Amino acid sequence: RLPLYFVVPICVSEESILKYEGRGRQFTNFYHLLNVFLQIWCWSCHNGAALLKMSAFPKEQDDSTSQMQKAFLDGIYKTISKPPYELLKTDDLSSSLPSLQDIQTAYTRFKQLFLIDNSTDFWVTDVKWFSLLESTNWLEIIRRVLKKAIEVAEYLERQHTNVLLIEETATDLCCVISSLVQVMMDSYSRTKSGFQSLIQKEWVIGGHGFLDRCNHLHKSDKEEAPVFLLLLNCVWQLVQQYPPAFEFTETYLTVLSDSLYVPIFSTFFFNSQHQKDTNTSGESLKTQSGPFRFLTVWDWSVQFDPKAQAFLNNPLYAEKPKPDKSQRKTARFKHQRQLSLPLTQTKSSTKRGFFREETDHLIKNILGKRIGKFINSSDEPPNSFREFYDSWHSKPVDYHGLLLPRIDGPEIKVWAQRYLRWIPEAQLHGGGTIATAAKILDLMEEVQSLQVKMDEQHSQAV
């Protein structure tokens, strides 16, 4: 499930990789070793702090794997020759967040609340709705995930500390937390194109097992878990709390969640990019009428006409002001979008090149620690999170800056549009969010039309 392109330590030569090619189990173990010990960049904060992810260390391993592990680590140690080493916070998500089984169980209970056969069942459930909702534990899981994302944002933003997320395969909860952090800290990820790029980078190319987690082939219920839906539920909390900060609407998230289970799209159908490329090329997809072509979910014209697509755009969203041309060369804006590499604190060398400089910075930051110290990072004061959280919420919101979700008490809500839309008794006749959005669109069109007329009259007067 590794991406097509990834970085290995300098000490791992191409010859050492090819050495295991075609050796069956050894070949598999070696690439499992790479998957375990590679720290993959996710995103970089404006201050240079990096967010990374890595697979967890295997609990049990045979002698050959153990020897390869030792050789790999020895090579990493030899890469480092002198200090200083930057701060690094590691977070094992398997111990700090619910397991995938717990998430699946909670979501299954949660879904049952909306499987209403008739009006009688609806009103019987309505009497004890809040107690039933609390017993599912679904909203509590959403709250815990958002809290974890805020904790990571604090390390990156306030403490200027690199954060390494660790998980069994680094393709489930690592993707959730990494994506949420970027949505909260990077205003580009709150645009339609930015959010699409984020999903492609962290989930599709990043190797999330959509085929297994969504159980598209109904082969293994044990692997099923609504991990991607968990992300969308968390993002929805942010969208409904800070509507002007997002270029897309909750309807965009709803149709995206629906597309997860539409088999004509290849975007959310495979476990990895390698599996997709293997199964969508060559003779395997030839039909009587010609080669079969999967569609991409991001082409909304396949599902909706232009009028319907208008509901995916937030009319209240204001684009980030563009910097003055005279300031572009001298000023660096706080939440400028970053790519996948952390910033260096020293001046780049034109002789060595960008990627060489960044690789050395990663080595200095990450690989200079013994694995024992690497995992067991020191705990921060328990009130650190609350101070960061309360301090941010006491200030005016910058919709193009850092966003922290409200997670106390009833602030975490049910995504009503997605889960209540098929229950007639829960609908408002002639009302609801869609009707409100339609009215806002009409008002915005009228305002824009009046603005055009005013501009025309002003130009004629001049």
Automatic annotation (TrEMBL):
One of its GO terms (cellular component) is membrane. It comes from the Eukaryota. This is Myotubularin-related protein 12. It holds the Pfam family Myotub-related. Residues 1-419 form the Myotubularin phosphatase domain. Keywords: Cytoplasm. One of its GO terms (biological process) is phosphatidylinositol dephosphorylation. Belongs to the protein-tyrosine phosphatase family. Non-receptor class myotubularin subfamily. SUPFAM superfamilies: (Phosphotyrosine protein) phosphatases II. It is found in: Cytoplasm. Its main location: cytoplasm. It comes from Antrostomus carolinensis.
